[in-house]
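In practice, a research group might receive sequence data for several interacting partners and want a quick structural hypothesis before committing to experiments. The following worked case mirrors that situation: the sequences arrive first, and a predicted assembly follows.
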Amino acid sequence: MSDYHFNSIEAKWQKYWAENQIFKAENNSEKPKYYVLDMFPYPSGAGLHVGHPLGYIASDIYARYKRHQGFNVLHPQGYDSFGLPAEQYAIQTGQHPAKTTKENIKRYREQLDKIGFSFDWSREVRTSDSEYYKWTQWIFIQLFESWYCNIHEQAFPISELIEIFNEEGNIGLNAKCGNKQPEFSADMWNSFSEEKQQKILLNYRLTYLAETEVNWCPQLGTVLANDEIVNGVSERGGFPVVKKKMTQWSMRISVFAERLLNGLNHLDWSESLKETQRNWIGKSVGASVEFRVVNEKEEFKGIVIKTFTTRPDTIYGVTFLTLAPENELVDKITTIEQRVEVAKYITTTAKKSERERLADVKNITGVFTGAYAKHPLTKELIPIWIGDYVLAGYGTGAVMAVPCGDQRDYDFAKHFNIPIKNIFEGVDISEKAHTEKEGTIIANSDFISGYSYKDASNKVIEALEKNHRGEKEINYRLRDAVFSRQRYWGEPFPVYYKNGLPQMIAEEYLPIRLPEVEKYLPTETGEPPLGRAINWAWDTNTNKIVNSKLISKAELEGYEDNGIYPLELNTMPGWAGSSWYMFRYMDALNNNEFASKEAMDYWKNVDLYIGGSEHATGHLLYSRFWTKFLHDRGFLKVDEPFKKLINQGMILGESAFVNIIDLEFNNNENPLSLRLTYAISESDYKKIEQGEIEKVDLDIFKNHKEFKDFNFEMLDKSSVDKKNLRRKHVLVDYVDNSNILDLVGVRQWDPEFNLIEFVLNLDGNYIVSREVEKMSKSKYNVVNPDDICKQYGADTLRLYEMFLGPLEQAKPWSTAGITGVHSFLKKFWRLYHSPFEGGQGDVFNITENPASKESLKTLHKTIKKVQEDIENFSFNTSVSTFMIAVNELTSQKCTSKEVLEPLLILLSPYAPHIAEELWSKLGHSESISTAAFPKFEEKYLIESMKKYPISFNGKMRFTMELPLDLSKDEIESVVMSHKKTIHYLEGRTPKKVIVVPGKIVNIVG
RNA sequence: GCCUUGGUGGUGGAAUUGGUAGACACGCUGGAUUCAAAAUCCAGUGCUUCACGGCGUGCGGGUUCGAUUCCCGCCCAAGGUACCA
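A structural hypothesis for the assembly, expressed as tokens:
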């Protein structure tokens, strides 16, 4: 007896693969390499749902396919195991995050193992493991010890910058830094105190400590990066975020902006993802333009307002300047008469939160400063205004307002009655600004009149540069990334503070391990959780972590410096560990380096990366940044981490709802008042919702004992109203494939259902409503892959997830459809246990008989299609192809090894367990994963006949089977003489007959 | 607003350079088998019409012998982004 017992087959092969380390990748191999990577998961307490493995299944199919193609495949997996949820849980329960993380990982691993992935687990990484974060700390130190040279567009060691300072000072230096540094000579540099030198260097380092305006989330008690904020609230938890000035570590990612932008051109990523990154980097090319502020006598006051514009061609249209309320020049230029009003305006805008200001876009507010500046070209006086439509954080926080060419400037000018000057030829600006660049001709603009946008811009920049009133400038939206988090469960910084200045701990003393704390909350004085650690000080004498009480009090009088200093209390953000993990997999057990040169030279970078698009502006940008940095410093040969990237679409859940109406019955005659809750059908629910019925079917209630003495005529109409309706989620486990609710189960699950009277249909069932939503625990629509594996098997799960639709598309999960692929696998099994050719049925039956022509054709058609599909990541269509193949081979009664053996290899990336099992039954002792992919041969597909579609005016009417070697004319004469042709022509003479040999015949007329 | 991706039966989705629209499944209908159910198998299933036929890939045009596919103009949905000067 040999049915398809998937549970035992799958357990058997999973054990075999693990015990024999079948998927262990070698760092030395004659074979070409291929690196397939999944975005590693955060091991949450909820475990995996069927949406999570989608990308893993796709990458696994590809990895297995590449092995069949003869590649040495690296396909690792690990865990992004630092993060907020474990810490929040720790705060609530007091459990150490390391403990819950470990438990969650164990559960994840069990779930992953059941799906039959070909991961090389010997290379597993965990970002929260100190042997891993040792190297995260090490990379941080390298960033601290580097600066960025603009001339070479490359990061260099800071020691080289110090040498330059020693010899030349910073005069003429073209380095990327924070605020523009005052110039100093070599002599001056050498005369500076050590402290002053360090402070100057901080402005050049690629990670630096600075007081910056950060996004502070009070509820989470931490700062957040821009990409961790969604619609003005925190991504995790949805809490409000406010701006706050704090001293924080930052990453100077902005210096890499241009390279991050250009690098995209060579990557095989989706256009939408590249576009998202381009928008996030936000390059604008334009010019800086300086306006000199003058006094009443029109004399230069020594104050320059620098503006940034992308439209230098509109410079003759400037009729005012606008400063952001936060601009520090505001105070310096405001006239005595305007001071009160300006102060009032600044106070009101400061009160508004970021969100309110954004929400209030339509309200135009502003105030005149009383001051004027001279136009750099016309020397006209330009009034200076303040307006909150100008943002302090972008460009210079000041704009040259050209109302005729910018809608915001236009609206502002209209609102405050500021003149609008038209500088465009033949354009009406009485209604709105003219913002179109292309095809616009400049007018009323002195030497640029008559020129196009492009030519005029270049001429203006030239003129400005000559007068030293401006220059060509490029601005990026991308800001430096805040790197400090006021949290416990993250990487500690390898940093201590001496006299308030940060010092790096030498590489040999890494890792700096996370200290124990008794609570995971901030301290009473508002310090981060690490402030609670008893031992959190660095002893520079012994190079060990010691008790915080020993910290040097040298700054106090009467104390000597004992060499013991406080350690950094912040930890690194979640993206620190995930920014370089793809390289760690190459040599995961290396204790001496983050990965050996040999390993990195061999594996280079990730050939195929699969993961969610939610990481477009976070992880995918940061890891590109770190890769470019490590490349510059000579630690990596490659300068992009991921060559090809695919975003798998989200699998949505099908939530189940009970439609509920809460009824209140009041009866004046009878002091009976009832509140009852009914679960009604979806159609009744919709009717009531749309006001189509005013009363629900009263018979339902009449049968109910509570209504024995009730006068239904008195039922208040208003009690059957939209407002009485609500929908309640039910756990999808209590709903079957026909949407019938398990009433007993659901009443046990949630006692509220005991108080609800269910209105049943004619079959005596309650049918739930379905709606597609994001799969989540709170929506009770989570489908667990373990349950699917248990009921149908991992091979079915794998096939079904692929069969659902195109990989990159979002699609709803419906367990109902899974029977289709499951019965395919059963048919597939039966094909190898057929009663044909002397088989017993139920007994393995493969013959050495030569295959029929049809069977060979089926096989080679399948090889061709499946190979193309895998290479195009069109996995859903190859599942269909397998189904067609099995249907055909079954009806052909095929038992030939010649056909059925290669078919196993084709299926094995998709359904590896069943393929291994049948492969071993064929007598192979090696795993099927070592077998070569079957070779497609065209000769089996060559046909001599073609079923031609015969169409009339483009409409197909009938088909005709004709030999393929017929000429155009022969086809035409055969078709024209066919009796059906004569019938469809109804006596008309065709104007034209189109014959495309091998394709189609179309008769026109 | 801007950018990106989409829009095909009751449902998920096929259709590689313009050439038989709806492959493959799910669901549904009918039948076989079964004491019965499950499982399995067979037939049918875009809409409309008794039928001949007509209509059909978001909408309106265009190119073409022929358009889901190419071009122009709209509509809708999802995702990204936004007083970014």
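Before designing any experiment, note the following. The two ends of chain A are 64 Å apart (CA to CA). Chain A has a mean pLDDT of 88.
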